[in-house]
Amino acid sequence: MSTFSLIKFYIDFITLICSIITNSTLILLVITHSPPKLGNYRHLICYFSIISMLLSTLAFIVEPNHPTVALLLLGRSENEVKLLKSVISDSVASMFQTNIFAISISFVFRFFALQREGRLRYFAGKFLCIWMVYPFVFGLISMVILYQLGPNDRMTSLQDLKKIYDLDIEKTTYSGGFYWTIDEYGNKIWNIKEASGITVLNFMKLIPLSTIFYFGTKSYKIIRGLISQGE
């Protein structure tokens, strides 16, 4: 590895260790020292910490040209290597999606707590399990979409970008989809599959972001009202 890659590797490794230590300590403190009045929010804190550690671990493993990836691929056939690399890479993006949805749960819980209308019952028992599962459902959907948008046997990024957009991507990092591609007859066509897939992914991101904005704004107004009453 080059000097820059080596430095980045150690920075990522230290970040991973810090994430594991910090989140593990937080989970331990919540289990052993958190007051009972926190209620089910204690479970949510542990839940958020676990997701954070999973995301940090996957991000470290998927680092390009990473030794850990090489270890995972040893002794596997070419098709298995392609499949495993694709699944691991897509899992990072899906965990990021899961993380956003999990953060939105916190805003909903805090709003219900500020309301004091007994709506925290929707975070108890089976409802709590549903709240914890649904971010992973959307994460799995994201992973499936990303996998479907992956490379196919007919297309290579280098050739298509050079032919369609006249771009040379050697030593270049890029992200996105091919909204226009070339069919088997050499005609330039709109790639409906990738365009619709990316549209769905972006729409899914709007769900937690809208939730955060809506419940965050409502909570802010309640807090302002409480402060005004105190004055």
UniProtKB/TrEMBL annotation:
One GO location term (cellular component): plasma membrane
InterPro entries: 7TM_GPCR_serpentine_rcpt_Str (IPR019428)
Entry keyword set: Membrane, Transmembrane, Transmembrane helix
Entry GO MF terms: G protein-coupled olfactory receptor activity
GO biological process: olfactory behavior
Transmembrane parts of this sequence: 6-32, 44-62, 92-113, 125-149, 195-215
Name of the protein this chain belongs to: 7TM GPCR serpentine receptor class x (Srx) domain-containing protein
Organism for this UniProt entry: Caenorhabditis latens
